[in-house]
Amino acid sequence: MGNGSTTFLQFDLTTLPAGTTSAQVSRATLTVFVNRVNAAGSVTVSPVTAA
Fold first, then answer.
1. pTM, whole model, 2 decimals?
2. Which of 16, 32, 35, 50 could form a disulfide with 20 if both were Cys (CB 3.0 to 4.6 A apart)?
3. What is d(CA 2, CA 48) in angstroms, rounded to the nearest whole number?
4. Residue-wise pLDDT tens digits, 11-30
């Protein structure tokens, strides 16, 4: 990923009970590890709300 790049992450949700809706999920935790930093910057995390 470079400056201005967009990356999508996909999660395996098969461990959730069948019929679980997004309204029933109150929180989720994403942990990101960075192994190298060449310059200062920021990361923006946003949900995908449409296909």
1. 0.44
2. 16
3. 20
4. 888 899 999 988 898 888 88
